[in-house]
Amino acid sequence: MERDCRRRGSAWPCAVVLLLIGTSALATPTTQIVIPATDIQKFGTVHIHLDGYVRVGDEPDGTRKPPILVLGPTVGILPWSFLQAEVGFDVILQGDGTYDREPFYFHGKLAVPEDAMFKWSPALAVGGYNIGTRWTGASRTDQNIVYGLIARTVPYLGRLTFGYYGARKDIFVDENGHCANHGFLASWDRTISELTDKLWVAIDFQSGHSALGSLNVGVAYQITPAFGVLVGFDHYLYPAVGGRDTVTLQLDIVPGAR
Asked: Strand ranges (DSSP E) for 77-169?
């Protein structure tokens, strides 16, 4: 299904990229568990997140990849209710000397919330993330992932989100060095208000025969207005490029929230 991004005679550069990108994490705009959400930080709000990803087992060659840590702020920058935007950056530490020399990745998002255009209109969002700064020879840390999303909350069922993404074709490749730089996004999330408005659950999915392809589940709890925690599990669809599955712990802090 994926088109070849290189001539078959030059697959070895793709293989080098494959080894590097297998440890890459996601710079995080406002997300579900892994994929972006149509949510936006409110104007003037500073949201700080600390995300960790730990492998549940050794790789097929017997090695174990180090945990990945992601830390950064996201800030709401538009004051309007009908059109909203956020920008931010992350410091991503992967235990990889090449990537960790330039650990800064940037992200931004523009969104229209539900009901903004007309009653029952869906939320819409476009954005980009993992926008990096460093040329690393066979690869780039600037993965330049862009996406579009549409979402709607259905009474009792929860919110359904669908979208599509594309990224740098010379970075996101499958185990054979063929281009795998685009795919579908989908998620379901719901606040379990029958128990408490502080409890939230989600499932999200990202297709693609690359390190991005994954199915993720998570549960979050808003301990205080200023502090929340999410615990999740990430199953990588293609372990040869995505590596072993991970457990994720994500902490969300909004200073001054009441």
From this structure: 84-93, 104-112, 123-131, 145-154, 158-166
